[in-house]
């Protein structure tokens, strides 16, 4: 079995992945940087494309289509009606998120 089949990817090569990325809504402008490695025998610089992460987050939070799927607080999910067996399937259903919220609330006023 090939890696593509194991990962259940929706694209078959890097060109198809790039075409998928191009079709995504524009969150923020891409910026191109060229990096040269000191002490390297490379004759060409390395091309790096990136976006401003703060602008990308603002764009995501401002999108009604995406906002409905975002999670901002802890969810305790259970597999039974007696609520004895916890179900962990996302970061906000685990204890890590709860512990981080509790530790940050020790010195601040927090509302859940």
How would you briefly describe this protein structure?
The protein has 112 residues and is an alpha+beta fold.
SSE topology sketch:
Blueprint: H1 3-7, H2 14-23, E1 31-35, E2 46-50, H3 53-61, H4 64-67, E3 77-78, E4 86-87, H5 95-105
Antiparallel strand pairs: 1-2, 3-4
Query: Ends: how far apart?
Result: 46 Å
The profile of the biggest β sheet is: 2 strands, antiparallel
Mean residue pLDDT:
78
Structural class: alpha+beta
Task: Please state roughly what percent of the residues sit in beta strands, choosing from under 5%, 5-15%, 15-25%, 25-35%, 35-45% or over 45%.
Answer: 5-15%
- For the biggest β-sheet, the strand order reads 1-2
| H/E element sequence | HHEEHHEEH
Q: Give the overall silhouette.
A: extended
Helix share, percent: 25-40%
- Please give the number of β-strands: 4
Tally of contiguous helical segments: 5
Are there runs of 5+ residues with pLDDT below 50, and where? Answer: none
Radius of gyration: 21 Å
């Amino acid at each position: 079995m090939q890696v593509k089949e194991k990962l259940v990817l929706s694209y078959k090569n890097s060109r198809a992945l790039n075409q998928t990325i191009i079709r995504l809504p524009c969150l923020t402008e891409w910026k191109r940087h060229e990096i040269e490695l000191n002490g390297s025998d490379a004759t060409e610089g390395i091309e790096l494309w990136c976006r401003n992460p703060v602008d990308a987050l603002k764009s995501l939070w401002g999108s009604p289509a995406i906002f409905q799927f975002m999670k901002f607080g802890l969810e305790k999910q259970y597999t039974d009606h007696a609520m004895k067996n916890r179900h962990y399937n996302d970061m906000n259903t685990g204890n890590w998120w709860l512990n981080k919220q509790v530790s940050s609330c020790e010195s601040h006023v927090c509302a859940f």
